[in-house]
Design brief:
The protein is an all-alpha fold. The chain has 7 helices and no strands.
Length: 172
């Protein structure tokens, strides 16, 4: 069943601007869905890792605790544990520097906050795409609508039949 108002008819009868707007909106939609799916998979993965991170605190020593977090380098909980260990070792092994004025707990706290900030920045990747698409897509769609209405009214005007069924039919 071939509809006069179908998407294929719009594509076939459309000009360069109509097709460009359609392609731009399709591209923005695909980019959004890709970011959404990647973020959903990340959330599922991090929730699974968070369940295993509880075992970290019930370990006898630090080496056993690290093993319970797994060997995955992308595990943010493992990365934070390693960051804390490295900060403590760095503070203990380095002397006569500015960091001597800081207590070891403050030094480790700063290192852990830096690790959390890095992970948060990693979590926020792709959000700029969603924000850009969310703020521009309505205006691009509105432009496409106005462009279509303009062409519909131009074709009605050139036909010389400005009755209500001719005016309202192409618009919707």
């Amino acid at each position: 069943m071939d509809s006069h108002f179908g998407l294929m008819n719009v594509w076939n009868q459309g000009d360069f601007v109509t097709r460009a707007v359609a392609l731009l909106l399709i591209g923005m939609s695909l980019a959004s869905w890709i970011v959404i799916l990647i973020k959903a998979l990340d959330v599922i993965r991090y929730k699974r890792l968070a369940k295993h991170s509880q075992d970290f605190w019930h370990s006898e020593d630090f080496a056993t605790a690290l093993n319970k977090l797994g060997k995955d380098d992308g595990n943010p909980f493992r990365a934070l544990a390693l960051e804390g260990r490295e900060a403590a070792a760095h503070h203990r092994n380095t002397k006569a520097h500015l960091h001597d004025a800081l207590d070891v707990s403050d030094w480790i706290t700063r290192a852990l906050r830096n690790g959390i900030d890095e992970f948060t920045a990693r979590l926020q990747t792709g959000l700029a795409i969603l924000a850009s698409v969310g703020s521009t897509a309505p205006f691009i769609g509105l432009f496409g609508t106005v462009w279509g209405i303009y062409h519909a009214l131009m074709s009605i005007g050139s036909a010389g039949q400005a009755t209500i069924d001719k005016v309202a039919g192409p618009i919707g």
